[in-house]
Amino acid sequence: MKIVALFFPKASIGTYLVAMAVAIALPIFAFVTLLLLQLEDNQRSTLRRETAQDALALSRIVDRQLQDMATTLRLLSSSPELENGNLAAFHQRTETALRDNTLFVIAVDRNGQQLLNTRRAFGTPLGEIANTAALQSVMTSGRIEASDVFRGRTSGDWVYNVTLPRKNDPVAALIITQDAKDLGKLVTTEGLAPGWSAAVIDQSGHVVAATGPTDLEPGMPFDPRILPAFTAPRGVFQDETILPHMLLGYARIPGWSWKTVIWGPIAQASILSTWRFLIIGGVALVLVAVLAAYAVARQVRTTIRDIAEMANRMGEGHIVSPVETSVIEANQVAIALSNASFDRSQTEDRLRFVMHELVHRTKNLLTLAQAMMRQLAKQADSVETFQAAVADRLDGLVRSIELLTSEQWGGVSLRRVVDIHLQAFPQSREQIDIIGEDFVLKPDAVQNLGLALHELATNSVKYGALSVPQGRVRFEWHDVKEEDRPDALLRFTWEERGGPPVVEPSRSGFGSTVIKAHAASAFRGTVQVDFLPEGLRWVLTAQRAMLERD
Q: Residue ranges of the alpha helices (H) in 316-382?
């Protein structure tokens, strides 16, 4: 303590401000040149790091595209039409699903003979695929791979393939192909400095897609002098002989054989040319600070004391009023302290309310989950069946909760609720007609209606109209008026047509409980389920006030 008191004796704030200004001035003269040199080096390091990060960001964009294509292949591989060998129906379904995309699907046998190609009408004579080497690599590895860029026989343009091997015959592999120019739309130099370029390179070192001032086209080889330097997952390459006054960043696309690269000129002004000006300006600013420090100190001291008094009162739990001083920043602090004291009181009330709501909603969700698992446990004949049933129902419940959370539990539009639950069945989405005027549902109605919709769609995909390509479903809601009911009513109708013959189930399961008893109870309405010969018909009539948010 004596040593501290020797160097920091009791003194006024003015004395310490002057001493601080002098202490700042002395090292400035000694280190200014070193700091300027270090700043220049830091800027170069920052440029290298940002270049590598930009290449990584581009690799993530391309990886997302390849992953989406791989996911589409997995979904298509398990389609009923393909499993049943109905290639014509599979061609029609796939062509319809990908109509708005730039992707095309090819089914081939083990020798590379095309069985169908959505670029051509089904039944058109097709030959072998152009890139049989990529097919053999996939069949050997047994996993999804992206091919090198090559000239497609059917399209005549530069294309690339993402191939999924299958163990079934005659379709030994499914391929999604895309023109390289369409992938090039994702390769952008937005956010990069002028004069920079970007490209995607395949495993053999050829350009898949590129953009920027360079003249690289799909299929062109990238500079072979640079490719051997791409040893790390990501990094930078700089060589004044190969790329004079330029910097190149690269990144491997995780899980794929491709790489992304960006490169461009280095435009960095030297800092050393301004060192004299900075030193002179620094000295002048320090002198002004020393002269002004003492004059400011007295006013600052009074202001600090007033602010400290406010803070003490706030710490005691009082709502404090802001003090008025001649220092604008101090006035802002005083106002902030005053607002904080008021906000703290409001926050305490809000926390109590949030805790109450959290406990209430948690209890409701746990009660619903417990009831769901009890019902499913009674019907399941094995642990695997029980797990699959619980996972499917919980997925429907999670979709509703995610919607409500995104809206902070303030309600969700009916259209969004319908869309989010039907997204679980993408191959059947175009078979469903949705008719009705949109409005905002209450949080409880989002969960309960979501459960019913999920059960109806799941049942239809398994046994009803959505289990066959020609089946149709009409989901409609509208207002109804009844003479003995003065309150407004809503009627929801789920009607199926064109499916397999309908047979009324011999026993009632959990799904029947959800669409009948649970739906009627949750909305204080009535539910009618008819197993008509032409298809299932489900009708819910409920009070509009039980569904619509005020």
A: 328-379
